[in-house]
Amino acid sequence: MPVTTRPRLSNDLPTLVRLLGEQQPATSYPQRWPLPYPAEEFIVRPGELVAWVAVDDGEVVGHVSVTALPDGRMATEWVEATGRPHEGLAEVSVLFVAGGRRGSGIGGLLLDVALAEIRRRGLTPMLDVVGEDTSAGLFYRRRGWRTVGRARPAWLPDHRPDLAFMLLADERLGS
After folding, report:
1. What is the pTM of this model?
2. What residues form DSSP beta bridges with 128?
């Protein structure tokens, strides 16, 4: 049976918190672990429009959400780093896959679901990633994303590379 996606349910959160913690040592996502606040608040963010989980044989194995950037935590940083307006953008957020399932196509499936929803809403997809040359940054670059700005938010540990703001290569923003 292939991996499928479905909307995230509130009763998925304990499993997602566990998966997030289990995959963190290999991915450094999130950058700090344990988090200084409940992990549920990292997964379910202000401005969230919709979220999905990937399911394999009844088991949750991944997560992604779409967040409205005007309400999101990075709108100011986006404008400062890129000089571009944040109106009309939606952010691909909180994309992660169970540790033992990395490289199996689940991340790409979740990203495609998020992109389809963003485009259905008539918005431009964007995302941020710590380090363009990390495994996450390379994943996005292989899928056609390009860096359009950088930031150094206060929450980013000193030893980590800058936060890169990315758009798909074929996406255009108004000035």
Report:
1. 0.90
2. 165
